[in-house]
Amino acid sequence: MDDLTGDALSEAETPPGIEIRELATVSEVFAASELLSVVWGGDRSGMPPNLLRALAHSGNYAVGLYDGDRMIGASVAFFAAPPARSMHSHITGILPGLQSQGLGRLLKRHQREWAFQRDVGRITWTFDPLVARNAHFNLCVLGTRVTEYLVNHYGPMDDGVNRGDESDRVMVTWALAAPPAPSPPADRVVATVEIPPDIEALREEAPVDAAVWRERVRANFLRCLDDGLVVGGFDRDRGYVFVRP
């Protein structure tokens, strides 16, 4: 549900007044839960305060992004199996109107540094494969790798972002110490899976067309995986590019 190269991510500057703090009090937990509800169009079940409080108190990653005293973003992740030295990033959100300003990069940089301090070597998360800006950020900016395509992963979701659509997700893995691989050269690309440039607007304006895109992308994506191909990157014009491993 999470809404540069490795070097660029490390060198990103924090704007004046912006700070990331762990959620230490009940009031901070409630503020983060409310913020994430706003980001997801009124869904109060995505990260309820009692669950968020439990995750934070038991030592998992739970932070707020602040502009002065105002919380403008939040991120929550929890540890996976200890032998895997892994963490799963469950939800990250920035308030509407403040997105696409590099704040997501700051949260991911902080999450990576927090994980390194606890001997975590990789972080996983899911995102909607139809959302082009998230695909670009996750695959091209952060350099994550697609590991699974999950059909209707969460079941019906009653929020302003996902309501009325099936919750297909792509699982990605971020190897924190590995440099991101470059985009594959043209002669290695075996197949592509196109996605719409703005699925969120399409859901509002033409929900039937959006549903057709969901089925088409699912079928084409799974067909490529069944053929033994792997996602080699993402291109804004062509969509997901597949290569042979």
What does this structure look like?
- With 245 residues, the chain is an alpha+beta fold.
- The protein has helices spanning 6-11, 26-39, 49-57, 103-117, 132-141, 199-205, 207-226; strands at 18-22, 61-67, 70-79, 86-94, 122-127, 145-150, 169-175, 189-193, 230-235, 239-243.
- A 7-stranded mixed sheet has the order 1-2-3-4-5-7-6, with helices on both faces. The chain has a 3-stranded antiparallel sheet with strand order 8-10-9.
- Helix 2 (26-39) packs across helix 3 (49-57) and helix 6 (199-205) packs across helix 7 (207-226).
- Residues 4-11 have low confidence and may be disordered.
Share in β-strands: 25-35%
Q: Terminal Cα separation, in Å?
A: 27 Å
**Unreliable parts:** 4-11
Task: Please provide the count of β strands.
Answer: 10
Helix content: 25-40%
Major beta sheet, specifics? 7 strands, mixed
List keywords for this structure.
alpha+beta; 245 residues; 3-stranded antiparallel beta sheet; 7-stranded mixed beta sheet; 10 strands
Offer a concise description of the structure:
33% of the residues lie in helices and 27% in strands. α6 packs across α7 (207-226). The chain has seven helices and ten strands.
Show the helix and strand layout.
Blueprint: H1 6-11, E1 18-22, H2 26-39, H3 49-57, E2 61-67, E3 70-79, E4 86-94, H4 103-117, E5 122-127, H5 132-141, E6 145-150, E7 169-175, E8 189-193, H6 199-205, H7 207-226, E9 230-235, E10 239-243
Parallel strand pairs: 4-5
Antiparallel strand pairs: 1-2, 2-3, 3-4, 5-7, 6-7, 8-10, 9-10
Helix pairs in contact: 2-3, 6-7
